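User: I'm curious what two different proteins look like when written out as structure tokens. Can you demonstrate?

Assistant: Sure. I'll show them one after the other, since each token string lines up with its own sequence. Here's the first protein:
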Amino acid sequence: MVKVKSGLLLLLLVPVLLLSQIAAADDYREYRLGVGDKVKVDIFGHPELSGDLVVNGGGDVVLPLINAVSAVGLTTHELAERITWKLKPDYLVNPRVTVELLGYRPYYILGEVNRSGSFPYVEGMTVLNAVALAGGFSDRANRKKMRIERKFGEGRKKIKATPNSKVQPGDIIVIKERFF
């Protein structure tokens, strides 16, 4: 009886685990590029046109022949399509372009931490992870008052945060001071 129940439980958990993996893959596919992200552009059969690139301050990646291609706000798939269309009419007959995300733009942490600044983003990061990388909370930190400033469209939105809040690339984390 116990074996049957544990087997049934396992059968019920497997689809849940698979769905969570699919959701994580969808999040990666939907990731929108921003300034500071690192990508690998591969143009099949043309290594001289391929390379590892960083989205520059203007929001572009710069490639031989076609120069600047706007990348901010696009997924890697959308960027590959845009590069394909820029190459197609004048330079290559049937370009096959892939774009792979190599590295995320940094996040920033300010306020009552021991080392404010920019830090490399790691997938799945929380505010508490970010604080740890910044040397921990300062003595004056209010561990219950923190916020994340996140880019939405053309502006930024202030979001109340907890130590378990998820951090995204480009976020600005602010740790407030306690008063006493």
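Here's a second, unrelated protein for contrast:
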Amino acid sequence: MLAVAAACSLTGLVLGYPYLAELALWLVINFACLLGGFLIHEGAHALAGRRFRGISSFVVSSSMFRFSIAPVGRLYGWQIAVMALAGPVAAAAAGLVLWAAVPGLLLHWWFWPHLVFLAPLFGDGRSLVVGIRHWSARVPLHAQPPEAAGEAQ
């Protein structure tokens, strides 16, 4: 991504087309917001998880288009629900702050869609459902590699 932006900037400067440098800056800023949204999202899960005793570790999984963390240990259902909510809500809150600070840039749209991850179709939504269903019970958490998680569905 940064290589494409650098190539656009350099080409624009050499050929005398300043709009290519503007395009490069736009690409870098939007990419930073996209990546920043996911870093805030997963970081909030980790911070929320660290507040609760019962998590022994986190397993990080990533692919070309996604990365996520999964806790290992035992938590009460309500703690699982709080952890599930923490990521999407933190990313959306960051978008709200960005919108309040610079509403004309429209960069907040990279952050607000994280609330969609609370739908049961996604891992956060499934965790939220498990947390609500087992609100006061201790639930064992076993992180699975993405391949195994896909086979279990």
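A detail about the second structure: The radius of gyration is 19 Å.
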